[in-house]
Design a protein that fits this description.
This protein is of the alpha/beta class. It has 4 domains: 118 residues, Glutaredoxin, CATH 3.40.30; 146 residues; 93 residues, no CATH class; 262 residues, Rossmann fold, CATH 3.40.50.150. It is built from 21 helices and 21 strands. The strands form 4 sheets. A 12-stranded mixed β-sheet has the order 6-4-1-7-8-17-16-15-18-19-21-20, sandwiched between helices. A 4-stranded antiparallel β-sheet has the order 10-11-12-13, covered by helices on one side. It has a 3-stranded antiparallel β-sheet with strand order 2-3-5. Helix 1 packs parallel to helix 4 and helix 1 crosses helix 9. The longest helix has 30 residues. The C terminus is likely disordered.
Length: 668
């Protein structure tokens, strides 16, 4: 199975590649996975972003093609690089994390005995969540490489200046980027482990079952071993895995004297003492080490960050000792990575000179940077330092908070918008005459839920059909398993339909249905919303969660595109690096704050039928959507806020319709 990858960079006539950090990480992972069936298409960009230089001998075993910008396929041009193309050219993946996850999947299929899927982490979740909802993904994919690229450029400039000015050559202090300090603080945290107790019980049982007086303590079955650290305790244990080791400390085996001091075990009593103490050990006596960036096991995040940190050290003349001195956790992690055989092999293939790395930084006389300055982290950055795979839990407003915001809304005389569906009550679709693969049940939904999904789809599809014209491009954002996009592509064959979805599993389901139907007017994109930059004529989504709805609306506004959107999860709205609340000038001028809007969102989620707060919930839901539509109105749209019919098809049944004023659609 081959894989086509489009990367930023530039290829010289001598075969040398100059690349930005993200592209270099892709090549390092290719080397680590020993993939040779890769076609690399190098797309030239601004040379100011090219930081890494790889010699021709490093890339000789890869199929590399220089590509003029005007030769980039249209399906690739609309996305942020790196990009992979697979299927019949209609499945596109965009963004560093998505591309590297795909490389690992291809490697696992090509070499199943090498367990490459282990690099995807627990339940395959490593860097799976998009940067919009995961501060951890955002750091690894966006913030850290950008900060390191800036740091490398600054250090190179310092070297140039020092070469021209002898007085600047020694004792130069460099301020580290805050993102580096965030990663260091993250490494100081205890590892987050979903199966913490299960893992510890397994390790404990292996040690107890296999520890006998006859055995060598460094060679226990199941690749679990324990070894003395210079004759003292606690013991350090290791469990060997295909790509790394799990390291743990056995605090319960500390040998104390009468005065409480830690004492070494006597050689002649060593095994007997340990065997006796081992029987009394408990799960709480085992402490798992935060050895890798995501916890106790190595993942693709380690491979990506290893590449970035190596090139940062390269700009510092490979002086790891300087890093260890100021960033001990990060420095020790990098040192451990360099000691792993598979990393050493990949580094050699990639062109890393890790053999030249020095941990001794005592002699500073020939150095340019002699010490680091650690930046002060603001309160906001400190909160970001709690790097999470998923967005924080929804904000829970109390009744007085809701009452306060509703009073402010009333005083400001803000009224919820209204309107009717552009097709009135004529929204039914001929499901019985359509191919079976179009029906939501084909996407794996149970019959009762599929029936409601059909009703939801009818409202959106008929509205879209009323608006679009022949030859236009429709984008189904947050497309999931493709229920909406596939129905649109089938019923509006005169338009092109793009499906944008970040979840791999959902996109695979959609791809299978598209292939079964033989639809030629669909292209599928696995990427974050922010990585799709193509122009389109209408954007739609069904139940985009929280802030994703506002990201879809912003995409439509940026593209001068109409929209038909059904929001969901109002309680999940929150400020991000892309979206801030409230959206409209109307709400801002009424002194409604972001937290006021979040409070309305919390109340808006209480819309299930027959609950006491249903009426208030619907009112708050309409207010949040009024802020959204007023913002669109301020950008030149004619807008409608109506409800899906019947209301029972979903508690989140608002439908937001926006038509750009110059659109010729017959809707006022």
């Amino acid at each position: 199975m081959s894989i086509d990858i489009y990367l930023c960079g530039e290829k010289s006539e001598q075969g040398t590649l100059t690349l930005p950090l993200s592209s270099s990480a892709v090549i390092f992972v290719i080397k680590y996975c020993k993939l040779t069936n890769v076609n690399l298409y190098i797309v030239p960009i601004s040379s100011s972003t090219n930081i890494v230089s790889l010699k021709s001998k490093v890339v000789d075993d890869l199929n590399i093609y220089g590509l003029d910008p005007d030769k980039i396929p249209d399906s690739v041009r609309v996305c942020t690089l790196p990009v992979t193309v697979s299927g019949a050219g209609n499945l596109i993946r965009s963004g560093l994390c998505s591309v590297i996850r795909q490389i690992v999947c291809v490697a696992n299929d090509s070499y199943p005995d090498d367990n490459y899927n282990d690099l995807l982490g627990f339940r395959g979740g490593s860097l799976k969540a998009c940067a919009e909802v995961s501060s951890w993904t955002k750091l690894c994919e966006l913030e850290f490489p950008e900060a390191i690229m800036t740091a490398i450029k600054e250090i190179r400039n310092i070297k140039v200046r020092s070469d021209n000015n002898e007085s600047e050559k020694h004792n130069i202090t460099y301020t580290l980027p805050k993102e580096v300090l965030m990663l260091e603080r993250h490494m100081h945290q205890p590892p987050r482990i979903h199966n913490d107790d299960k893992m510890k019980r397994y390790l404990l049982q292996c040690l107890i079952n296999n520890w006998t007086n006859e055995e060598d303590i460094s060679n226990i079955e199941n690749n679990v071993c324990a070894k003395l650290c210079q004759g003292y305790n606690p013991l350090i244990g290791e469990m060997v895995q295909p790509h790394a080791i799990i390291r743990f400390r056995l605090e319960g085996l500390i040998n104390k004297g009468n005065n409480g001091d830690v004492k070494p075990f006597q050689d002649d009593l060593l095994l007997a003492q340990l065997a006796e103490k081992m029987k009394k050990m408990k799960v709480d006596d085992i402490f798992l080490d935060h050895l890798y960036v995501e916890g106790i096991e190595m993942t693709i995040a380690d491979l990506i960050l290893f590449t970035f940190v190596y090139h940062f050290l390269e700009s510092l003349d490979l002086r790891l000792g300087l890093l260890i001195k100021y960033l001990p956790k990060l420095g020790c992690w990098f040192q451990h990575m360099c000691e792993m055989p598979r990393i050493q092999e990949a580094a050699s293939q990639y062109g890393c000179t890790i053999d030249s790395i020095t941990c001794n930084d005592d002699n500073l006389t020939s150095n340019i940077i002699s010490k680091f300055n650690l930046p002060e982290l603001t309160k906001e950055v400190n909160e970001e330092a709690e790097l999470l795979r998923r967005t924080r839990s929804k904000y829970r407003a109390i009744k007085p908070d809701v009452a306060k915001v509703l009073k402010l809304i009333k005083m400001s005389n803000i009224q919820p918008k209204g309107g009717e569906h552009p097709c009135g009550n004529d929204i039914e679709l001929p499901w019985s005459t359509l191919p079976a693969a179009i029906h939501p049940q084909e996407g794996g939904l149970p019959a009762k839920r599929a029936a409601k999904k059909c009703q939801q789809l009818e409202n959106i599809v008929t509205a879209v059909k009323k608006i679009v014209t022949k030859g236009q491009v429709i984008v189904d954002f947050c497309s999931g398993g493709g229920h909406l996009g596939i129905t649109l592509a089938s019923l509006i064959p005169y338009c092109q339909v793009y499906l944008i979805e970040n979840k791999e599993e959902s996109l695979y389901l959609a791809k299978a249905r598209v292939d079964k139907l033989g639809l030629k007017n669909i292209t599928l994109y696995q990427c974050n919303l922010g990585y799709f930059h193509g122009k389109f004529d209408l954007g739609t989504c069904l139940h985009a969660c929280g802030v994703a709805t506002d990201m879809v609306l912003q995409k439509c506004i940026n593209s001068d595109a109409s929209f038909v959107v059904c929001p969901c999860c109002y309680g999940a709205v929150q400020n991000t690096h892309l979206i801030t609340y409230p959206r409209s000038k109307l709400f801002q001028d009424a002194n409604i704050s972001d937290m006021d809007l979040v409070t309305l969102g919390h109340a808006a989620d209480q819309t299930e039928l027959k609950i006491a707060l249903e009426e208030q919930g619907r009112y708050c839901m309409n207010l949040v959507d009024t802020d959204r539509l007023t913002y669109a109105e301020e950008k030149g749209y004619n807008v409608i806020l109506c409800s899906l019919q019947p209301l029972t098809c979903t508690p989140k049944n608002n439908l937001l319709i926006g038509i750009i004023n110059h659109a010729k659609n017959g809707i006022s």
